[in-house]
Amino acid sequence: MNRSCIVHVIRTRYADFINYCYLVEEVQSKTAFIVDPSWEMEKILRKLEELQVQLRAVLLTHSHFDHTNLVEPLIDLYNPEVYMSQREINDYHYQCRNIHGVHNLEELTLGNTSIQCLLTPGHTSGGMCYRVADYLFSGDTLFSEGCGSCFGQGGSADQMFESIQKLRRAIPPETIVFPGHSFGMAPGQTMRTLLNQNIYFQFTEREDFVRFRMRGNQSSLLNFK
């Protein structure tokens, strides 16, 4: 179990949008980074004050507004560095101050913490997951219950299949997964649980995966079964 940093789960809401962002506290240096800050700034500020840590970085899994809308306000307050996949920046023209493009398998070092970047397109063309020791921040690529929609601009069920298979191979079963949304299961399930219970890990053939994800009889885009 990773003991160098602690993940603080922050549930935020605006209208019908419910997101999870994650403040990761590095214990030794008393610094922190945040993943996909959204909606309720006061919750983030309260947690930073409670922990007495300095916000050094923002990690963005993709460019959708419900994952990025507090980036600029946080830059105004703390001037953190911001990281997003270079492909996402290029394809969606995302811009903010202090932005750095990162690439597949690139390693970031924030304080004493090493962060591995894993490019996982499918929901968007440049989606990025971040692995921090025994934690995985999976954005809208991988949920506990399913995977992200593949219908939007740059979305691809074919690429999502590849990304899901990539995570299957790369992420150890004891890793704790923190997605951008929850649809019944609390964030923080183990990869082992997802491998056993997430329906999209049960497909081994690309054609079956794509057909099921793009099927026309879904009651909603987030109806995983």
Automatic annotation (TrEMBL):
Question: What are the residue boundaries of the Metallo-beta-lactamase domain, all occurrences included?
Answer: 18-181
SMART domains xrefs: Lactamase_B
Q: Which reaction does it catalyse?
A: 3',5'-cyclic UMP + H2O = UMP + H(+); 3',5'-cyclic CMP + H2O = CMP + H(+)
Query: What are the names of the required cofactors?
Result: Zn(2+)
The answer to whether UniProt assigns keyword Repeat to this entry is no
Q: SUPFAM superfamilies from the xrefs? A: Metallo-hydrolase/oxidoreductase
Judging by the UniProt lineage, the source's domain of life is: Bacteria
Q: Which UniProt keywords apply?
A: Hydrolase, Metal-binding, Zinc
User: Sorted alphabetically, which PANTHER family does this protein's record hold?
Assistant: HYDROXYACYLGLUTATHIONE HYDROLASE GLOC
Job of this protein: Counteracts the endogenous Pycsar antiviral defense system. Phosphodiesterase that enables metal-dependent hydrolysis of host cyclic nucleotide Pycsar defense signals such as cCMP and cUMP.
Q: What is this protein called?
A: Polyketide biosynthesis protein
Q: Can you name the source organism?
A: Paenibacillus helianthi
Upper taxonomic classification of the species?
Bacteria, Bacillati, Bacillota, Bacilli, Bacillales
